Amino acid sequence: MRETRTGPHLVRGVVVLVGVLLLVAATVIALNSPRLSLQAWSLGMDTGSDSADVEMRFERADRLAPGAEVRYGESLVGRVRSVDTDGSDAVIGVRLEGDSGVPADVFAEIRLPTALGSPFIALTPPRGDRSTELLEDTRLLPLARTGVGPDLESSLASLGLLLNGSGIDQLGTVMEELTIALDGRGDEIARIRDRGDRALELYELHRDDIDRTIVALDRVNSALAARRDLIDRGMQVSADLVSEAAASRETILALMDTTAALTVQVEEFTTGTDGRIAPSLATLKLLLQDMEGFGGEVGPTLDALQRFVVLFDEAIRGDHMMFDGALDLPGSLDSLGTGGEARGGGAP
How far is Cα 166 from Cα 177, in angstroms, rounded to an integer? Predict the structure, then answer.
């Protein structure tokens, strides 16, 4: 009878089976390590009804995996849920925790904490006044408000540049070139230095004047700032005036044409008088000077004539007799100046 030994064979089969299972498990873990990352677990995150899914668009999202942290300042406010692309931009799905308080106009940047660390999204609050809307309400962060920080390749390249001494070599090359460029130009450098010294001396000499000028300019600036409303109103009035002038352009042109025509007529009139206006004005000037001489006598004479007319009217009553004592001063001047030509219809 043949003896069978099943014990050792069974043990070897079980070991082989366990080894195969472990190999398959390792392969699955290697192929799905991003999705199996501990970052993808929502530990301490609010995934209830108050959470909000936000879409962020980046130029690129190298090494950013689902589960990466989303930080607002020093606070952890969410995690990356999906990393996708629309053919041109990286589309990142982020879930924010409830009541995160992140404004809608934040700036998102993919950063790398260390050369061997995992990338995360840093949200930076905007400068100045913040938006009253929240990111969890708009649920979208466009490409204009996102960016990518220095990547691993750039960091390692900078480190390699420093470690390889290429930066020091370049500095030495620059110093050598400067030495060659400045060789033989000591006099020019000395002159430039002397000019600089003189400029500094002048500045020190007139420092008080410069300070007073700066203070005066500051006062003028302050005065202009204090009267900004008045300046704005003046500019508005000036704009209205220019608008009115533009609207009345035809009227202004017509007035200018009329003025030009009047000037031509005056010139024709003065040319056609053959110099008679100047003598007439000279005669009128002499007449006025003579009238100024007896101006003191005209007043008493007129008062006497007025009293005479009143007394004459009281002395004689009746329809058969009336005395006209009115004094025709224009007619008298006409008789004295022109000999009665104006009243007689003669030329002026």
Answer: 16
